[in-house]
Amino acid sequence: GNSVTQMEGPVTLSEEAFLTINCTYTATGYPSLFWYVQYPGEGLQLLLKATKADDKGSNKGFEATYRKETTSFHLEKGSVQVSDSAVYFCALLTGTASKLTFGTGTRLQVTL
Amino acid sequence: DTAVSQTPKYLVTQMGNDKSIKCEQNLGHDTMYWYKQDSKKFLKIMFSYNNKELIINETVPNRFSPKSPDKAHLNLHINSLELGDSAVYFCASSQRNGTFYEQYFGPGTRLTVT
Lengths: 112, 114
What we know:
The complex is a heterodimer of chains A (112) and B (114).
Chain A: E1 3-6, E2 11-14, E3 19-21, E4 23-26, E5 32-38, E6 44-50, E7 56-59, E8 62-65, E9 75-77, E10 86-93, E11 101-102, E12 106-111
Parallel strand pairs in A: 2-12
Antiparallel strand pairs in A: 1-4, 3-9, 5-6, 5-10, 7-8, 8-9, 10-11, 10-12
Chain B: E1 4-7, E2 10-13, E3 19-25, E4 31-37, E5 43-50, E6 53-57, E7 64-70, E8 73-78, E9 87-94, E10 104-105, E11 109-113
């Protein structure tokens, strides 16, 4: 079956630090990959996506590249801000099903 | 304009009660979902409807029953509530477009069973 593995948090960084949140996946077929973000007390928002190998998703300074050879979709940002503090979820969706499979989420805390 | 809305936002109730959570989307999507997020933030799908037809039914107790009166609404009814049902329930919707189903989430309903 499909599964997503994320690095455990929390991740605590100082403002302007470089961020990497690791995500690897196991899937049948060719999944689409997503990063969702959940700010405190809110629902999930789609942050970025990639639908095929070597695609790079980007949004709000965040980037992730779909690496089929390593089955990874690591999230990166060059300079984090306090406002980026949230829980980040990696997820996949295959073409044969319409359900998202989520990782366990990684909490990011950015301090001044 | 709220794309996916849920009511209520908070729900506190006692064990054994029956309660419903409502979801509405104004995006014109044909597929809707219910997800459960537990206290450790783990998200798992429960149900999915496409054009009012149940297409995903994960291993969920029979006490949970989804109902889709039309494509824009998907309600979740829970009978005989138990302590373990306490969680945040998220509704989502998407439009089938080739093989890419971007899902839009509602704000969540925090259910607390005492």
